[in-house]
Structure formats: C-alpha cells, structure tokens
Design a protein that fits this description.
alpha+beta, Outer membrane efflux proteins (OEP), elongated, 483 residues, 9 helices
C-alpha cells in the first residue's frame, strides 16, 4: 500500500505544472521597433531606377521563398535551384539539424521506465571446505535464471521536462540556423552572379572602346601621312588603345574568380564549370521591405538566437532540480530453478519491488555555482538575441540607404556619361577640323570611358545591394516555418 501511494503521488505530481522548478520562459525584451524604416526611399523617386513595393500591392507586399525569381533571369533561377540539391555546406547544416531533432527523442525517452530482460545458466562447484559443506549432499549444481528488471525515475521536479524543453528549443534553433545558411548561400550566389555579369558589361564596354580607339588611331595615322597631324598624335592614340586593351584583359581575372565561386556554391568542380558572357541588362526589381515590426518574425538568425535563449532558460530549471531528492523506483521478477524442467513454473517465480530517495546534503557549493552559471548563460544568450535584433535592423537600414543613395548617384552619373559623350563628339569634330590637337580628344576619351565604367559599376552595386536587402529582410522566411 505504501508503494502504491508513492506511485500515485509521483504520477499526481508529474501532472501538476507547479512541480516543474525553474523560471518560466518569456522571450527576452527588445527595444520597440519604429513605425517605419528611416532609410526608406520616397514612394516614387523622380527618374529613379528602383522603388519599394507599396503595402497596397498585395501580390508584392511579401517576399516569397524563391525570391531570386524577382530578377527575371532564367539562368540565375537554374543556378539557385542547384544549391538545394548539391551544396555541401547546406547538406552539413541539414544533418546538424537532423542530429538536433534526434536529441529531442533522446530527452523524451527519459519519461519512460527502463526495462531489461536476461537469462543465465550456470554450473557451480561448491568448496568442500566451506562451513556448511558437510550439510550439503551435492557440491555440484545448476542454476537456471530468467529475470526481468524495471527502473524508473519519476520527473517529480521537472528536470526531464526541462531537458525536453531545452532539446526542443535547440532543435528549433538548428532549424533556423539551417534556414539562415540556405538564405546566405542563395544570397551569395546571386551576388556573385550579378558581380560576374557586371564584369561582362565592363568587358563589353572595353571591347567597344577598343574598336573606337582603333578607329581614332587610323584617323591620326591618316592625318599624319597627310601632314596635318604630328607623330605625337599617333603615339597618344596608340597609348590609349593599348591601355584599354590591357584593362579589357584585366577584367577577366575577377570574372573567372566569380565563375569559380558559383561553381563551388552549386556543388560542381570549378575545372568543369563555365558560364558564357552575358552583360547585365536586367531591371532592378521592386522589393517589399514591409514594416520594422515584422522583422523579428522574418529573419532566421533572430529566431535561432531567441530559441537558444529558451534552451538556456531551461538549463536553469535543470540546475535547480538538483537541489531536490533523487527518487528511483525499481522492480525485478522472473524464474530461477536448479532443474530446466521446473524452470518456468510457479514455485520458481521470484520478484522484488523497491524505491529509493537520495538527497545531497553537502557538495561544497557545486549546485549553487551551477545554478548561477545557468542564469549567467541565459543572460548572455538574451543579450546575444537583443544584439542580433539590432544587427538585423542595421543591415536593413544599411541596404535601404545604399539603394536609395546609389539610385540618386546613378541618375547623376547617367547625366555625366551623356555630357562626356557630347564632349568627345565636340572634341572629335574640332580635331578633324584642325582646330585643336589630339590631346583634347584623348582627354575626352578618357573621361567618357571613366564615366561609363563608373556607370556600369553603379549598376552592379545596385543589384548587389538589392540582394543584400532581401537577405536582411529574411528572404521570404517566416518564424511559422519552424518545426
């Protein structure tokens, strides 16, 4: 009756949430988000090449999972699809999540008793000189044993439940880390792709400039033969031509490196992978930034940090549970006989039931130190969560500012390119008319090429910033996707 009462009390205590010691988890507080992003561009910038999606547009108000499809580049879409299949970094993160998920099952197994079953057969020869040997008729005998055992530690103080809570939170954090790895890889691939295409645009510009400079060289040579130009004009035209040729060759170094990086990201050998040149001629997409209050739910790294805070909080309860008695329930039963014929019979049955409780009275402050350590680790993780939130807002604001400023700069740079082209045309006409020397033409050529290369570079930077903004916004991920 005493054992039954103990078991009933244990089951009742497990059913009561008050028996789970330790603080109840609450998400760490963060500064309230603003109503709108500070660096948000105006809704319709004059002559701008990029703008934010407006909330009224329901179709574009949220990023989707395959966010790279916003750019409308089939080749980019094909490359991005290969990351989920072949990228080894993503596979490693996936296996780490699977391992964390299995740890939840390991923790949950402690809810149930451990059961064991064993059988043994022994042949014994007793000593003839033992004290009771004269009363023993047979010093040789057999023992046949079939016995099962059960042991159970009831979760009276919630240590097991806290372990499950910690494992569950860690598994969710691992799932968020997996989503963050996937987001980072997709963003890195898109950035490398646009950088490579930007270099293709630079190469095309330089090749076209080489052709134009070759025409200018022929012009100076004709004028030199006609006696209306000096040898200096020819030398200056040759210098400009060879300089631009060298620049066109130099561009291919960085282009090759981006191509190799893309190969690695999609799980292919850089030695067997190549992409044909294609200048960057895409249009910047409309990117929905949403409102700042949504960011906490849309970034996987923020979700991972918050889940790790939950796991750290559960460790406090585990440490506190060590202050309470450790209760063990156990039992054994089976059959034992000296004869195989009577092995599995009623008279051969045996059984035992028992319970124990152990309380640590002195541990030199070990439990106190472990509890304080668990609290400190929770506070550290809570601070890390808040820092991740702040970092997230910073990244969004950084890239919003970059896109807004680059858009304005691109408009100004377009005007500079147009002016440089007009200047070169005027200088060319003046040179052909004999009004000026070739140095004026050379100066105008250099100015035009410099401004056109800057314009191409601005376009590449705008695409890279748009990718980073999408990454900063979570890439269409949502906290509801946590398992």
């Amino acid at each position: 009756m005493t054992l039954k009462a103990a078991l009933l009390s244990a089951a009742l205590c497990m059913a009561l949430t008050g028996c789970m010691v330790g603080p109840k988890y609450q998400r760490p507080s963060v500064p309230p988000p603003p109503a709108a992003y500070k660096e948000m561009p105006p809704p319709n910038p004059p002559n701008g090449t990029w703008k934010q999606a407006q909330p009224a547009n329901a179709q574009s108000a949220q990023l989707k999972g395959n966010w790279w499809e916003l750019y409308g580049d089939p080749q980019l879409n094909d490359l991005e699809a290969k990351i989920a299949v072949s990228n080894q970094t993503l596979k490693a993160a996936t296996e780490e999540y699977f391992a964390a998920r299995e740890q939840v099952r390991v923790a949950r197994s402690n809810y149930f008793p451990n059961l064991g079953l064993g059988a043994s057969i022994t042949r014994t020869h007793a000593s003839q000189n033992q004290p009771n040997a004269r009363n023993t008729s047979n010093l040789h005998y057999n023992t046949f044993t079939l016995q099962g055992q059960a042991s159970w530690e009831p979760d009276l103080w919630g240590a097991i439940r806290r372990n499950v809570e910690a494992a569950h939170a860690n598994a969710q954090a691992s799932a968020a880390d997996l989503a963050n790895v996937a987001l980072s890889l997709h963003a890195e691939l898109a950035t490398d792709y646009f950088e490579m295409r930007g270099l293709d645009s630079q190469k095309q510009l330089l090749d076209n400039t080489v052709k134009a400079d070759a025409d200018y060289l022929r012009l100076t040579q004709i004028r030199f033969k006609g006696g209306v130009a000096s040898d200096v004009d020819v030398a200056q035209a040759e210098t400009e031509l060879e300089t631009v040729k060298a620049q066109a060759i130099d561009v291919q170094v960085a282009r090759a490196q981006f191509e190799h990086a893309i190969a690695t990201l999609i799980g292919q050998s850089a030695s067997t992978f190549s992409l044909p040149p294609a200048p960057l001629r895409l249009k910047l997409p409309t990117i929905p930034a949403g409102v700042p209050s949504e960011l906490l739910e849309r970034r996987p790294d923020i979700a991972a940090a918050e889940r790790q805070a939950d796991a750290a909080n559960a460790q406090i309860g585990i440490a506190i549970a060590a202050y309470y008695p450790n209760v063990q329930l156990g039992g054994a039963g089976g059959f034992e006989s000296a004869n195989p014929g009577t092995w599995i019979q009623g008279p051969s049955a045996l059984w035992s039931l028992g319970a124990s409780a152990m309380e640590t009275l002195f541990d030199a402050g070990r439990r106190h130190a472990l509890t304080a350590q668990a609290r400190d680790l929770y506070e550290a993780q809570a601070a890390s969560y808040r820092q991740t939130v702040l970092q997230g807002f910073q990244e969004v604001e950084d890239n919003l500012a970059a896109l807004r400023i680059l858009d304005t700069e691109a408009q100004t740079q377009a005007a500079a390119v147009a002016a440089a082209r007009r200047s070169l045309q005027v200088s060319t006409n003046r040179y052909k008319g004999g009004v000026t020397n070739y140095l004026e033409v050379l100066t105008a050529q250099t100015a035009q090429l410099t401004n056109e290369r800057t314009q191409n570079d601005l376009t590449t930077r705008q695409f890279a910033a748009s990718v980073q903004l999408i990454k900063a916004l979570g890439g269409g991920w949502n906290r509801s996707q946590l398992p």
